């Protein structure tokens, strides 16, 4: 059973709650206070009660009294009287961060490990740029960047060059600041899809429609806050926020409303604006989102912003840029707006409660949106993560056209980025694949530090599809057009593979940027064999295109197309995770020099896993496949065949064949069928993914055909079986894990590690038990007998995990130090991982040459 939750997480959760919770929004809280009896005052007590209800299921191992003390320390920090929200945020920021020139850095005195661990949790619960704005409030100029610099001087020096990002999903590659700016400035022209807003769980404020209206109202409130501060900054004639809004001679009524040309008149326009502001401040009902969007468009002016193709387009479309200016040398407008609002509240605006209400409620809406998109600590498992990932799509629609450019600019944050590979799904039209590759060229990044750029197209695993209005499992063979498991799904993948192949045939030059293929998403939903044919189709086309480029563009030095595959991250049993990783090598989907995404199963400590999972539940079919795979290891002679274990496995497998097939089957035949299922020649002979009317050639193919088409057998295979860990299986897991690491290393493959993703989706535990240190033992550590495997460090999904590439190195550095690894050895280890990432990249040096990029994409010059 998992142990107590980290106190650093609980403290961060308490610190964020007054600023980033629906309870604090409902309470309209402007301060935290205690009465004369040293008890919480009524509003603060209501917030504390809400915090208790929220934190109770997340605080295993901690008593209510322990939580109360953590809360009081977080909220008051020995302050006896009321704490104004501006003072609270300022204290919170300066407790974690400090000014370093024009930058904001992590406060690392007296140690770095604890501040890094605390900031990791806090930055998942509260937008980090809000802390940056608060920490820079006393600076005479705006901060240079939106983020806190977590790198120590020596670590930063090791990341000044040759840093590669090789595992980045472009759909989640933007920073939250840029996504929010795009949302706030383009929302009236790009209404959100409320159906998509409801995917992945209930959004803030109870429903997709309420969330949409609140975002529209927040975007208008943002303009009012900025307009008020601008007039004070430039004109200085506005006495309070209330007069700015309500005064008959104030700016809203006298200057803004007449320019809006509202069809129903100026008074009605003011009424809609006030209703939007009241919704942000007090919640409750509001005008429809369409009416708010119309009023918002009138506030912005008649000219709609052009479609965003670059990060500069996103920033230029922000109306705050006219006031604050836009440049790569300063933080974004959002951070600077927060900073100036805080400065007003901390000085001359101390008594301007209407401004304080609007400002803090706006910040809470923004923080709740951030929390909605970032993965909450404690929600382990790939299924939970995918729910979070689905939430991004409707909100990023405002900046989708600039996705690649934003990804490159965001990835360069604080490191010497030399290469970046961005992942997205392929289209089913070759022309659209071509256009997608051209978009990924990002010629807008044209300075001398331009990195190598690559696009990796990934096939997405999905467990189900909609057919005739009903949800159907992709694994169910009852598919009229195909008559087999994964028929419709595999046909879709084959269409995507064909589109890639045809695009490469028409324009081989696409290989300059199209550098790899991948399989991602719901790891357990689709088996490995379903991707044998798509991988083969794309590889063959890429080889032909590469041969042509060797003649036409020899100076590009085009390498073969790379492949990677998400595997070993999500598994019901450790044997299942190891099997799915081994299948990639066993059946040739991955070749020498390719990579494996996450691959945690090969690095998990079997003893620890067995202690934590003595009994698990697994579908009959998957358990049978695990046992057949284990028997293959013994049959090949690569594992010592313990007679007792072999007989135990055979007996269990025979029992499962009876349950699944209706009668006992020959295990040797089933083992051959498992292998044949992964052979492209067998799948093509059976006509896959259309198997109607095909006649198998022999008994093995008959088993494969039956597996693919027999619906009752499929249903029986989905029955669940309880599996208990045995000493024999534990010995097998130790041996297979070691053999798999040896084989990965021998083939010069690289494991793509994503530290925060691993921390949240799995359980990172102590540094000495992290899977990364089985792949690459720590210098001076206790695992020198382990086979070293190349290991790269990446971000995976920066929005979901509130991180960046530099942050990931910093968090690993802190973990190493907290594990009593000396700084010298820790820095040495991280520098080696940087080198692993750079060596394992698929990108080409020629892709950093704008002349070559323009040859590929002349229309984007």
Automatic annotation (TrEMBL):
Keywords assigned: Hydrolase, Metal-binding, Zinc
Keyword Zinc assigned: yes
Record keyword Iron-sulfur present: no
Gene Ontology MF annotations: adenosine deaminase activity; metal ion binding
GO (cellular component) term, any one: cytosol
Cofactor requirements of the protein: Zn(2+)
GO biological process: adenosine catabolic process; hypoxanthine salvage; inosine biosynthetic process; purine ribonucleoside monophosphate biosynthetic process
Entries under InterPro entries matching the protein: A/AMP_deam_AS, Ado/ade_deaminase, Metal_Hydrolase
Source species, domain of life: Bacteria
Family of this protein: Belongs to the metallo-dependent hydrolases superfamily. Adenosine and AMP deaminases family.
Name of this chain's protein: Uncharacterized protein
Species of provenance: Polyangium fumosum
